[in-house]
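[step 3/7] inverse_fold.run input=structure_tokens len=378
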């Protein structure tokens, strides 16, 4: 080994020991570039990757270890970094006013792919995407459609930019209608009272996709006689584009009212307190968006499963398209067909869910995939 290489090795080992002695590094965290897997990058020469692709994540105020969207997004980035080979780091936001500042920090450090998390970051992402047109942005669970007046852009559902702006933004969205249907099949098959219900914190196109197809899935499984009901919680918000989560008391009280009417499987859609009501009443519950067995382990006794948006898969797939230059602006939807959504594990309920119901859930999933089961959109 040459003296030069020995010296470099000595410096690396010394720095490593010093970092270990000082304890964990403060955020933002940087992940070293992994060896490049040229096999999955057919259009990009391996030598170019590290020099041009730097990926930054800006979390919402939940932090990177939230057992939810932020953590899953970071896991997707780490997986892509290990396979493709690029520099990556996250910056945590302590308050909403940090969003723009954190995006600016990544931009000034030459990060040319920036991922933001959730609809609460929508305004900051749109503003900075216009400010930095050469940076590729992805935002999780917020619809943005770049358009020059195309009739395909429905302004009642999406934030449309008639001036053609946001051509550098990809919205990573999820098929809530498919998830709602599977949750309904599970609920319909487990209900003893013949009454399943849902509680939603805000009426939005996404919550409607969940709720309408939750009812449809229950009917598909249990027949037309099964009763279904949804209650929205009235919420005042200054920005109708940002779903607002209610406090747990209001969500719990709404769920308790439905349970008191006979509902024995309750599906909570962005409504805090629903799982608490189910636990207090000892009825079954279904979580939403992420595996809530991890986020609310104290509710595991009543939690059948959760509808799961696989944020890590969506982010990983997005970064692969960035790397192979097939990336497109606009809405990129994760579905059962591409493995981006699905029911979470049954966990503690696995042995109590009948084998034939599990087979029905699989049949429903297969039917949605091949188109033999028609899923309605509100």
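[step 3/7] decode complete -> sequence:
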């Amino acid at each position: 080994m040459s003296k030069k290489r020995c010296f470099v090795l000595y410096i690396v080992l010394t720095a490593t020991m010093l970092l270990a002695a000082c304890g964990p590094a403060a955020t933002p965290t940087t992940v070293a570039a992994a060896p490049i897997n040229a096999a999955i990058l057919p259009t990009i020469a391996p030598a170019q990757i590290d020099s041009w692709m730097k990926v930054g994540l800006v979390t919402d105020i939940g932090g990177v270890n939230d057992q939810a969207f932020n953590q899953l997004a970071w896991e997707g980035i780490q997986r892509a970094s290990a396979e493709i080979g690029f520099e990556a780091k996250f910056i945590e936001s302590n308050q909403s006013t940090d969003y723009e500042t954190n995006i600016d920090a990544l931009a000034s450090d030459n990060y040319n792919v920036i991922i933001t998390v959730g609809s609460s970051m929508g305004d900051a992402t749109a503003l900075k995407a216009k400010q930095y047109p050469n940076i590729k942005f992805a935002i999780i669970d917020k619809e943005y459609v770049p358009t020059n007046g195309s009739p395909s852009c429905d302004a009642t559902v999406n934030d449309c930019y008639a001036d053609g702006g946001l051509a550098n933004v990809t919205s990573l969205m999820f098929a809530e209608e498919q998830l709602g249907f599977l949750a309904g099949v599970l609920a319909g098959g487990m209900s003893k009272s013949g009454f399943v219900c849902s509680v939603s914190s805000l009426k939005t196109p996404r919550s409607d996709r969940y709720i309408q197809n939750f009812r449809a899935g229950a009917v598909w499984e249990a027949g037309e006689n099964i009763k279904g009901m949804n209650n929205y919680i009235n919420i005042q918000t200054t920005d109708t584009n940002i779903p607002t989560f209610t406090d747990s008391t209001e969500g719990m009280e709404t769920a308790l009212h439905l349970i008191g009417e006979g509902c024995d499987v309750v599906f909570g859609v962005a409504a805090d307190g629903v799982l608490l009501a189910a636990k207090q009443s000892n009825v079954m519950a279904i979580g939403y968006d992420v595996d809530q067995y991890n986020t609310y382990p104290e509710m595991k006794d009543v939690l059948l499963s959760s509808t799961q948006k696989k944020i890590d898969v969506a982010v990983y797939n997005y970064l692969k398209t960035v790397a192979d230059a097939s990336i497109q602006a606009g809405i990129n939807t994760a579905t059962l067909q591409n493995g981006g959504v699905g029911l979470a594990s049954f966990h503690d309920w696995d042995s109590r869910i009948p084998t034939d119901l599990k087979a029905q859930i699989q049949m429903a999933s297969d039917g949605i995939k091949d188109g033999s089961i028609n899923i309605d959109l509100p």
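[step 4/7] annotate
The chain is about 40% helix and 20% strand.
Residues 190 and 353 are 7 Å apart (CA to CA).
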